[in-house]
Amino acid sequence: MTTKSIENLNKSRNPSTYDAMIDIETLDVSPTSIVVSIGYIIFKMEPTIKDSVKYTKRYNIQIEGQEALGLTRSVKTEKFWKRPQNKEAFENLQKDTIPLKTTLESLTKDLASIRIQNFWANSPNFDYVILENAYKACGIGCDQIPWKFYQLRDVRTVKWVSGQYFGHLKRNSEEDRKGILEFLDDISSHDPLFDCAMQIMDVIHLNNSMELRSKDKEEDEKEKKFLKCEHEPDVGNV
Predict the structure, then answer these.
(1) Which pLDDT value is given to residue 164?
(2) How far is CA 22 from CA 55, 56, 58, 59, 215, in A?
(3) Domain contains 52
(4) Residue 121's closest CA among 91, 69, 159, 92?
(5) How far apart are the C-alpha atoms of 236 and 238, rounded to whole Å?
(6) Per-residue pLDDT tens for 16-45?
(7) What is the pLDDT of residue 194?
(8) The overall pTM is greater than 0.70
(9) What is the pLDDT of residue 51?
(10) Which end of the chain is more exposed for a tag (fewer CB within 10 A), N or C?
């Protein structure tokens, strides 16, 4: 169940530890890229996306002024956003924009206000590298970045593990789609919150598969012990 305020997540007597999924939209794919939008979802490992998501937020960022900070745009990425199927999504990300520095300061304040164990992305080498460069470009010290290098987790690794050991991810089920629509209204692909939700599904599906396999192993061990006891002779009656 989602909350309207991130501060509410810490109001219980025993505040929980959460995971954060971050996704960004940009005007380049290099580490120096202009940042168009940042979305993040605070979540816990629960069986469904609906139960997992606890808080969502998206920042739409002013593009103007970012080049003066040394941030870049690429012709190829701009052409991508100008495609008919992507144009509306880009226009939505340019509504109610705020300056990049203000965005990053708010992001730090938000994420530092709760206990986050893992920071996820698809992959950290893209999203977090670009964000860390943006912090630097805005003159914000590295001590203000809300994650540490050892907290970063890669969704691409999750998908590889799932493919190697569980065949495939049961992604995009009707239940998952309904779960997303319950907390994301009028959201589609190339929106950072939609991408965050899809990536969380990858993570929780692998977690569910691993828990199920663990339970199956426990049941197998119990059955083996039972069968062993059934076939062992009763020494007292020999």
Answers:
(1) 83
(2) 12, 10, 10, 11, 31
(3) yes
(4) 159
(5) 6
(6) 799 999 999 999 999 999 999 999 999 998
(7) 87
(8) yes
(9) 85
(10) C
Rounded-to-integer distance, Cα 52 and Cα 37, Å: 23
* Cα distance between residue 17 and residue 156, in whole Å: 23
The average confidence (pLDDT) of the chain is 85
Domain count, the chain: 1
| Whether residue 6 has pLDDT greater than 60 | yes
Burial of 15 (0-12, 13-18, 19+ CB in 10 A): exposed
Per DSSP, 21 falls in state E
Taking the CB of residue 99, how many other CB atoms lie within 10 A of it? 14
228 domain-assigned: no
Structural domain of residue 205, as residue ranges? 6-216
For residue 147, the domain's CATH number is 3.30.420.10
Closest CA to 58 of 93, 88, 85, 6: 93
* Residue 237 token pair: 């009656």
What is the rounded distance in angstroms from the CA atom of residue 183 to the CA atom of residue 197? 10
Beta carbons within 10 angstroms of residue 150's beta carbon:
7
Residue type, 215: K
- Averaged over 209-231, what is the pLDDT? 59
24 bridge partner residues: 38
What does the alpha-carbon distance between residue 47 and residue 194 come to, in Å, rounded to a whole number?
Answer: 19
Burial of 141 (0-12, 13-18, 19+ CB in 10 A): exposed
Beta carbons of 127 and 24 less than 8 angstroms apart: yes
Per-residue pLDDT tens for 157-216? 998 888 887 765 555 556 666 666 666 766 767 899 989 998 998 898 888 888 766 555
Check: CB of residue 25 under 8 Å from CB of residue 190.
yes
In a domain, 236, yes or no: no
